[in-house]
Write a structure and sequence with these properties.
Layout: E1 2-6, H1 10-21, E2 25-29, E3 45-46, E4 58-61, H2 66-77, E5 86-89, H3 95-107, E6 111-114, E7 117-118, H4 121-125, E8 130-134, H5 137-150, E9 153-158, H6 162-190, H7 195-203, H8 210-221, H9 230-247, H10 252-266, H11 277-284
Parallel strand pairs: 1-2, 1-4, 2-3, 4-5, 5-6, 8-9
Antiparallel strand pairs: 7-8
Length: 302
């Protein structure tokens, strides 16, 4: 099966590399070609333009926003004599945008799968990515072996765009849990408990999780190298709260967290990881944080 890949940012590159390393015949395109060229070392090819991917059996997309997704799919499909059998979109976009792209693909005889993911580039490289997929079951069965190369867990959520709602709900929890983790960590430290000790206890308790363990190095050593920025998290809160309004679901905790994320963006710290919520909580609590410079386990060891 020939596979095309559109979008090789941090996540897209790591995901595409897993396919290439597994021996999948892969051709990738990115707006900035240099960002796709690391795949050459993995045995993949790099396309000069999106139209070069029209002959592939399957094309994956991993882009930043709804507008980007529509732009690349139109470049792939508009006026094409040959089209892929399946498009698999792993981006986080709105339900409305996903539905439009599904219709665009259907008009050209292409099956469209929504396949958003949970994780970041480090999680991908460690083989820990999770995917949730919705769309035609036959198309899912056709490409499931590729999805299983990309991630350790793949969940089929049904027809249509149900996977989008799953991912949006997931990212609401991502923000809420991180804000909660920031609050309780600052509380413990202001009471004299070192962050690494508090988080070690938490991670080994029933309240610990793969996520709290993964965020522990950032919290302990104040390393905010971006895995997911506050701006991207704000986008997902906008999508989630819009879905909640449409479905008539009150979400007071999520709404408050969205305001705290916006407060972080308002400080200008938009290129760092969203774990800066810890700094904002400390500042609001009259606490000045310092890196503890302690080696801690992020839980991603292979």
């Amino acid at each position: 099966m020939n596979v095309g890949w559109i979008g090789t940012g941090r996540m897209g590159l790591a995901m595409a590399a897993r396919l290439a390393r597994a021996g999948v015949e892969l051709t990738a395109w990115n707006r900035t070609r240099a960002k796709a060229e690391p795949l050459l070392a993995e045995g993949a090819s790099v396309a000069g333009e999106i139209a070069d991917l029209r002959g592939q059996d399957v094309v994956f997309t991993m882009v930043s926003a709804s507008q980007d997704l529509e732009e690349v799919l139109r470049a792939l499909l508009d006026g094409a004599e040959r089209v892929p059998r399946v498009v698999v979109d792993c981006s986080t976009v709105s339900l409305e945008a996903s539905a439009r792209m599904r219709e665009l693909c259907a008009d050209r005889g292409v099956d469209f799968l929504a396949a958003p993911v949970s994780g970041n580039a480090k999680v991908v490289e460690a083989g820990g990515l999770s995917l949730v997929v919705s769309g035609p079951r036959e198309a899912y069965d056709r490409v499931s072996h590729l999805l299983e190369i990309i991630g350790r867990a793949v969940t089929y959520a049904g027809e249509g765009d149900r996977a989008r709602l799953v991912k949006i709900a997931h990212n609401l929890m991502l923000g809420v849990v991180t804000q909660c983790l920031a609050e309780i960590t600052v509380l413990a430290e202001k009471g004299g408990v070192p962050r690494h000790a508090f988080l070690e206890f938490l991670n080994n308790s029933v309240m610990g999780s793969a996520f709290t363990r993964y965020k522990t190095p950032a919290f302990v050593n104040l390393d905010y190298t971006p895995t997911f920025t506050p701006v991207l998290l704000r986008k997902d809160f906008d999508l989630g709260l819009a879905a909640a309004r449409e479905l008539g679901v009150p979400m007071p905790v999520a709404a408050l967290t969205a305001q705290l994320v916006q407060a972080g963006i308002g400080t200008g710290r938009v290129e760092e990881d969203f774990a800066i919520l810890l700094d904002l909580q400390a500042a609001a609590s009259g606490l000045v944080l310092e890196p503890e410079n302690v080696a801690v386990d992020d839980g991603l060891a292979r």
